C-alpha cells in the first residue's frame, strides 16, 4: 500500500513538472535535463599523448523566457589510443617486452585514456528556423576543470608494479582550467515528444601534470600544457516546465 502511494506521489510530481501539450508561439522559462554524447579530436599537447576520444555526459540548463540560458554539465571522457604511452612501462619489461606478474607469468596490461570535464555554462537561444520561440540556433560558453590520465588496467590485478599507488607513477594525471564554446541547433517539440540539440564544440585547457614524480623518467614534470579538443556533440533534452505557457491545445 505504501509503495503504491509513493509511486503515485512520484508520478504526480513528474506530471506537475512536465506538461504534455502543444506549445503555441511563446518563449517560456524551462528547466532542461540533458544527456549527451560527443566525438572529439585532440589538439595541442593533448594530441601528442592521445588519439581521438568520446565523451558521455549529463547537464542541467535553465532557459529564461528571454532565451538566455545558464547551467552546468559533467562529461566523462574515454579513448583507446595512447600515443606516448608505449615506452612508459619499458623499465618493468623483460627482454621479450613482457611484464611479469606475481605468479611468474606474463601480465596483461592495457593502456587507455580516461578523464572528465565539469563546469558551468552561459548562453542564448536565437529562435531561427524552429517550431517555436524556444527552438533555434543555440550558443553557449563555459568554464570548468578538464582532467585526463593514462588508465593502466591490469587483468586479474596480479601484476604488483602497476597496482595501487605504483600505477600513479606512470599515469600522467593532468588537469587544469578549461574554457569551452558550443554552437549548434536546439529543437523543442511543440508536443514535448522529441527534443534534442546538436552542434560543434571547442575546448581550450591550461593544464599541468599533478603527480609529484614520474617513475619512468625519474623526474618531476611541471611543464605547462596547452590541451585542445574539437568535437561534435548531440544530446537529448527532457524539458521540465515549472509553469504552463499561456496557451496550450490539450488532447
Commentary on this structure:
This protein has 251 residues and is mostly beta strands. The protein has one domain (2-249): Porin (Beta Barrel), CATH 2.40.160. It is 8% helix and 50% strand. It contains 2 helices and 10 strands, in the order H-E-E-H-E-E-E-E-E-E-E-E. The strands form 2 sheets. It has an 8-stranded antiparallel β-barrel. It is elongated and about 70 Å long. It starts with a helix and ends with a strand. Residues 10-22 and 245-251 have low confidence and may be disordered.
Descriptors:
251 residues, mainly beta, Porin, two-stranded antiparallel ribbon, 10 strands, disordered C terminus
What is the average per-residue confidence, as pLDDT, rounded to a whole number? 87
Question: Number of DSSP strands?
Answer: 10
Shape: elongated
Number of domains: 1
* CATH C-level name: Mainly Beta
In angstroms, what separates the terminal alpha carbons?
32 Å
Helix content: under 10%
Sketch the major β-sheet. Answer: 8 strands, antiparallel, barrel
| Estimated structural class | mainly beta
Weakly predicted, low-confidence segments: 10-22, 245-251
Number of separate helices: 2
Rg over CA atoms, rounded to whole Å, is: 23 Å
Q: Can you write the helix and strand succession as a string?
A: HEEHEEEEEEEE
Briefly note the CATH topology name. Porin
Amino acid at each position: 500500500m505504501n509503495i503504491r502511494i509513493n509511486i503515485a506521489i512520484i508520478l504526480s510530481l513528474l506530471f506537475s513538472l512536465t506538461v504534455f501539450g502543444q506549445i503555441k508561439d511563446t518563449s517560456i522559462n524551462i528547466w532542461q535535463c540533458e544527456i549527451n554524447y560527443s566525438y572529439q579530436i585532440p589538439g595541442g599537447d593533448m594530441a601528442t599523448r592521445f588519439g581521438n576520444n568520446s565523451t558521455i555526459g549529463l547537464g542541467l540548463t535553465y532557459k529564461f523566457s528571454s532565451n538566455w540560458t545558464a547551467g552546468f554539465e559533467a562529461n566523462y571522457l574515454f579513448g583507446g589510443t595512447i600515443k606516448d604511452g608505449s615506452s612508459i612501462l619499458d623499465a618493468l619489461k623483460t627482454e621479450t617486452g613482457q611484464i611479469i606478474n606475481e605468479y611468474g607469468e606474463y601480465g596483461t596490461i592495457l593502456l587507455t585514456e580516461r578523464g572528465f570535464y565539469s563546469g558551468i555554462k552561459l548562453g542564448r537561444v536565437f529562435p531561427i528556423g524552429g517550431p517555436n520561440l524556444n527552438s533555434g540556433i543555440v550558443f553557449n560558453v563555459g568554464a570548468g576543470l578538464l582532467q585526463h590520465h593514462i588508465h593502466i588496467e591490469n587483468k586479474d590485478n596480479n601484476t604488483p608494479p602497476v597496482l595501487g599507488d605504483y600505477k600513479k607513477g606512470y599515469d600522467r594525471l593532468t588537469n587544469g582550467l578549461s574554457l569551452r564554446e558550443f554552437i549548434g541547433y536546439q529543437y523543442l517539440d511543440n508536443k514535448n515528444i522529441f527534443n534534442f540539440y546538436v552542434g560543434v564544440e571547442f575546448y581550450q585547457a591550461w593544464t599541468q601534470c599533478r603527480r609529484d614524480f614520474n617513475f619512468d623518467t625519474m623526474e618531476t614534470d611541471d611543464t605547462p600544457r596547452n590541451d585542445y579538443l574539437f568535437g561534435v556533440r548531440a544530446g537529448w533534452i527532457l524539458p521540465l516546465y515549472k509553469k504552463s505557457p499561456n496557451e496550450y491545445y490539450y488532447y
